[in-house]
Amino acid sequence: MVGCPFSCVVWDLDGTLLERGGLTPVDGVETLLAAWSADGVEMAVATSAPTGLARRVVDELGWSSWFGHVAGTGPGVVGKDEVLVEALLGLGRVLPDGAVGAAMVGDAPTDVAAARRHGLTAVGVTWSGTPADVLGGADLIWSHPPS
Ligand SMILES: [Mg+2]
Fold this sequence. Notes:
Blueprint: E1 8-11, H1 29-38, E2 42-50, H2 51-60, E3 69-73, H3 79-90, E4 102-106, H4 109-117, E5 121-125, E6 140-142
Parallel strand pairs: 1-2, 1-4, 2-3, 4-5, 5-6
Magnesium ion is lined by residues 12, 14-16, 106-108.
């Protein structure tokens, strides 16, 4: 397992950690999350799903211990930009300094845009079918979970 190049990783859920539109973990992500968590990488989820639903899903998958915070949408928190800020705050990271060493990993242009807007490294993933050129603003493109 490759070591994590970041001190903090904020993950999108649908199409990134989970197969798009479902509750099936993407092959390889559980091994990766377990390893990076054990290495002390701070991790959070930032999803456009409602926070309560997202927390239930993460809990039912048995993933809760890997994440310092699970942030979704809700009152006053709309859109990936705001969810990302919530996710970082939940890890005790206040912007702009909180972005240092942090990456946002996601399969949508909104994930890439949120990362860039807040000064995180933007990692676009193509394993759910998003073409790399759609994620053109990303600093890095991952076609498979690092292994
Ligand atoms: Mg997604």
